[in-house]
Amino acid sequence: MTALSTARSTPSIFGGVMIIGGTIIGAGMFSLPVVMAGAWFFWSLAGLVFTWFCMLHSGLMILEANLNYAPGASFDTITRDLLGRNWNVLNGLSIAFVLYILTYAYISASGSIIHHTLDELNVVFPPRLAGLLFALAVAFIVWLSTKAVSRMTAIVLGAKVITFFLTFGSLLGHVKPATLMNVAEQSPSYAPYLLMTLPFCLASFGYHGNVPSLMKYYGREPKIIIRCLVWGTLIALGLYAIWLLGTMGNIARHDFIAIAEKGGNIDVLVQALSGVLNSRSLNLLLVIFSNFAVASSFLGVTLGLFDYLADLFGFDDSPLGRLKTALATFLPPMAGGLIWPNGFLYAIGYAGLAATVWAAIVPALLARASRKRFGSPRYRVWGGNGMIALILLFGAGNALVHVLSSLGLLPVYK
Ligand SMILES: N[C@@H](Cc1ccccc1)C(=O)O
C-alpha cells in the first residue's frame, strides 16, 4: 500500500523521459548523416556529444529559473518576469519561427516519405499532394483536442521505438568497417566541415519548450526533472550515434554528395540505404520507421504551435475557435510545402539558427537573472559563471556559423 501511495504522489520518471526523448528524436535526425558527410563519423560524433552537453545544460538552466515560479508558469511568463519585455518578444518570435519552419519541414518530409512508401508499392503519387494530405490529417487530429494528440502521439511513439530497434538492430549488422573508416579515400580531410554541422545538431537536440510542461507534470521536483532531462537527452544521443553508424557504415562518403544535391530529403536517404542493404524486410522496416519518426514530431510540434497561436491571438477553445487556430497553424506551412516541396535541409538549418535564441542564449540569461534575483535556492546548475558563459558562447557561435554558411563562407563537402 505504501509503495502505491508514494508512486501516486510522485509520478515515475518514465513518462517524463518519454516526453523529452519523443520531442528530441524527430525529423532533425534525418538531416544529420547528410550534413555530416563532410566531417564524417568521428568528428561528427564529437560535435554531437558537445551539442548534447550544451543542450542538456541549457535545459537545466530553464529548470533552474522555472523553479522560482508556480508549476504551470510558462516559458513566456518566466522570460517576461526575469528578462523583461524586449527579450520576451524576441524569445516568442524565435519560438514561433522554429515551430512554423519545423511544421513546414515535416510537411516536406512527410510528402517525400509517403511518396517513397507508395513508390515501393508501385503506386505513383505526387509528393506535394502526399504532404498536403498528411498535413490535413494531422490538422484534423490537432483540431479535435489535445487529448486526441496525446493518444495519437503515444501510439506513434510506441511504434517509432519498436521499429527503431528492429531497423537499427539489423542495420548495425550490415555496417561495413571499410565504409565507416572511409578507407577508399586517400588523405581525406574532415575537420574543416565540422562547424557547418552545428546548427543541425542544435535543431536535432531541441526540446526546451517541454521543460515547463515537466514542471507542471511533476511539481517543484528538481531531482526528478533533472533525471528526465539527463535520460531523455542521453537516449537521443545514443540513438543518433547508432543512426550515424548505421548510415555511414553503409553508404560511402562520396555517395552522400548526390543525396545532398537532390535536396537531402528523407526519401533520397532511405532509397540510398535500401540500395546498399539489399534486404526487402529491412527496407520495409526502414520505411515504416521513417513514417512514424516524422509523424510523432509532427504531432508534438504542431500541438505546441497550436497552443501558442491560440494564446497569442486569443482564439477560444470552441470548435470554431479551434478551427481558426488550426488555419493559422497549418495554412502558412502548407502553402510553403506546395511552393517549395524540397526545402527540408534548409528548414532544419534555419530551425537551428532560430532555436539558438530560446534553447541556448535565453536559458543562460534566465539562469543568471534567477541567481541575481532569487539566489536560485531550490537548484542551481553546476559550473557557476563559466557554464553560463559556455552556453552563451555555444548559442552565439551557432548563429554565427549559420550566417557564415548561408553566405557561402564555410567549406562545403561536394
Ligand atoms: N528535435 C526536433 C526538433 C525540435 C527543435 C526544437 C524544439 C522542438 C523540436 C527534431 O529533431 O525533429
TrEMBL record:
<feature type="transmembrane region" description="Helical">
    <location>
        <begin position="224"/>
        <end position="246"/>
    </location>
</feature>
<feature type="transmembrane region" description="Helical">
    <location>
        <begin position="40"/>
        <end position="63"/>
    </location>
</feature>
<feature type="transmembrane region" description="Helical">
    <location>
        <begin position="284"/>
        <end position="309"/>
    </location>
</feature>
<protein>
    <recommendedName>
        <fullName>Aromatic amino acid permease</fullName>
    </recommendedName>
</protein>
<dbReference type="GO" id="GO:0005886">
    <property type="term" value="C:plasma membrane"/>
</dbReference>
<keyword id="KW-1133">Transmembrane helix</keyword>
<keyword id="KW-1003">Cell membrane</keyword>
<feature type="transmembrane region" description="Helical">
    <location>
        <begin position="129"/>
        <end position="146"/>
    </location>
</feature>
<keyword id="KW-0997">Cell inner membrane</keyword>
<keyword id="KW-0029">Amino-acid transport</keyword>
<feature type="transmembrane region" description="Helical">
    <location>
        <begin position="388"/>
        <end position="413"/>
    </location>
</feature>
<feature type="transmembrane region" description="Helical">
    <location>
        <begin position="153"/>
        <end position="173"/>
    </location>
</feature>
<keyword id="KW-0812">Transmembrane</keyword>
<dbReference type="GO" id="GO:0015173">
    <property type="term" value="F:aromatic amino acid transmembrane transporter activity"/>
</dbReference>
<feature type="transmembrane region" description="Helical">
    <location>
        <begin position="12"/>
        <end position="34"/>
    </location>
</feature>
<feature type="transmembrane region" description="Helical">
    <location>
        <begin position="346"/>
        <end position="367"/>
    </location>
</feature>
<dbReference type="InterPro" id="IPR018227">
    <property type="entry name" value="Amino_acid_transport_2"/>
</dbReference>
<comment type="function">
    <text>Involved in transporting aromatic amino acids across the cytoplasmic membrane.</text>
</comment>
<keyword id="KW-0472">Membrane</keyword>
<dbReference type="InterPro" id="IPR013061">
    <property type="entry name" value="Trp/try_permease_CS"/>
</dbReference>
<feature type="transmembrane region" description="Helical">
    <location>
        <begin position="193"/>
        <end position="212"/>
    </location>
</feature>
<keyword id="KW-0813">Transport</keyword>
<dbReference type="Pfam" id="PF03222">
    <property type="entry name" value="Trp_Tyr_perm"/>
</dbReference>
<feature type="transmembrane region" description="Helical">
    <location>
        <begin position="89"/>
        <end position="109"/>
    </location>
</feature>
<dbReference type="GO" id="GO:0003333">
    <property type="term" value="P:amino acid transmembrane transport"/>
</dbReference>
<dbReference type="InterPro" id="IPR013059">
    <property type="entry name" value="Trp_tyr_transpt"/>
</dbReference>
<comment type="similarity">
    <text>Belongs to the amino acid/polyamine transporter 2 family. Mtr/TnaB/TyrP permease subfamily.</text>
</comment>
